[in-house]
Amino acid sequence: MADKQDYSQNELFTQSLDSGQYKPRVPANHFFTRIRGYEKILLLIMGLVLLSIISFSLGVEKGRRVVLTSGNNTDPASYTIQVAAFKNRNLALRQAQMLAKAGLSPLVFAKGNYVILCVGKFSNQESAQPLLIQLQRTYAGCRIRRL
Predict the structure, then answer these.
(1) What is the dihedral of CA 15, 19, 22, 26, to 10 degrees?
(2) pLDDT at residue 105 is higher than 80
(3) Residue 42: pLDDT over 50
(4) Distance in angstroms between the alpha carbons of the first and the last residue of the chain
(5) CA-to-CA distance for 14 and 83, rounded, in angstroms?
(6) Average confidence (pLDDT) over 92-120
(7) Which residue has the higher pLDDT, 2 or 92?
């Protein structure tokens, strides 16, 4: 019986040609290989929306900082008196001509759907106060505003 032990036990282990050690095969089970095609598209869309929201909010914050820093500059003429707001540009221009004939310096500019009629340029609110009192006799809704 001692002569019959020439057999090799290949049932449990296989010899690889590379080395004599056993290397288990790891299945490629990555996260993205387990996701279906339409789920990948949905994840991509959600990522793009999230990235858009973040970049928009950062842009808004940057815009606020720019406005705050430029708003701190004290211009020599940073205040005016708003006389009226018109929907019709021709009416605003006629009122501006009347104010110019009265010796005032009118400003007309568009703001949204309205045309704003203002008078004068002032460095601070206190210097605009006497003209505001005079204009309130004719235009009831006058107010001092920033340019």
Answers:
(1) -110
(2) yes
(3) yes
(4) 111
(5) 96
(6) 92
(7) 92
Separation CA 90–CA 88 (nearest Å): 6
pLDDT band at 71 (very low <50, low <70, confident <90, very high): very low
Structure tokens, 126:
């206190």
φ/ψ of 11, rounded to 5, equals -75, -40
Q: Which residues contact 92 (CB under 8 A, 6 or more apart)?
A: 84, 86, 108, 115, 116, 117
* Contacts with 110 (C-beta within 8 Å, 6 or more apart), sequence order: 89, 116
Q: Give residue 59's pLDDT.
A: 83
d(CA 107, CA 88): 15
* Distance in angstroms (rounded) separating the CA atoms of residues 120 and 106: 6
